[in-house]
Amino acid sequence: MKDKYLVIKIEDGLKYLNKEDKAKLCELEMKIRIGRADNKANPNNKYAVINLDEPYAKEITNIMKEHGHWED
Length: 72
Hints:
Blueprint: H1 10-16, H2 19-38, H3 57-66
């Protein structure tokens, strides 16, 4: 499956980014939200993230396939 999302674990951002990097990341996120709003898309989407290394991942991806939300 082609990557569709960029996921950054909040804990990793807090741990590995300095103050300047965090500010840049917040600025980029805001630009994306504004762009989505300008295009009449929800600027505050919420997502469920699945770590594909987990033993239950196959069950979740099978459910997503049934609903047309997953491609191999």
